[in-house]
Amino acid sequence: MTVLPTTAYKILGRADWRATLAEGAYDGSAVDLADGYIHLSAADQLEGTAAKHYAGQSDLMLIEVDLTALGEALVWEPSRGGALFPHIYGPLPVAATRGARSLSVTPDGRMILDEA
How much is the pTM? Predict the structure, then answer.
């Protein structure tokens, strides 16, 4: 039996994170809304996600999510390369987050995290 992680990550723009803190939950990006769920990445998937979707961007936030706080809204589904990715069907409540760090992604896809 595969043991799934209890922590995953969401990359957001800084303004979206500020709005999430003010509103108490994150409803998702345009891509999330179009797909019908909020995309998250496990730790081992994060670099690939950053390189594919955020290369060359700064003013980002890396949000740590406590998957155990999401209950039945969390579903692990096959995605990129057939790997299981955590998806949230519904909003991401701030109460389910463990922290946030500033993030930028170099044009070649390398993540640069600010020290917490």
Answer: 0.93
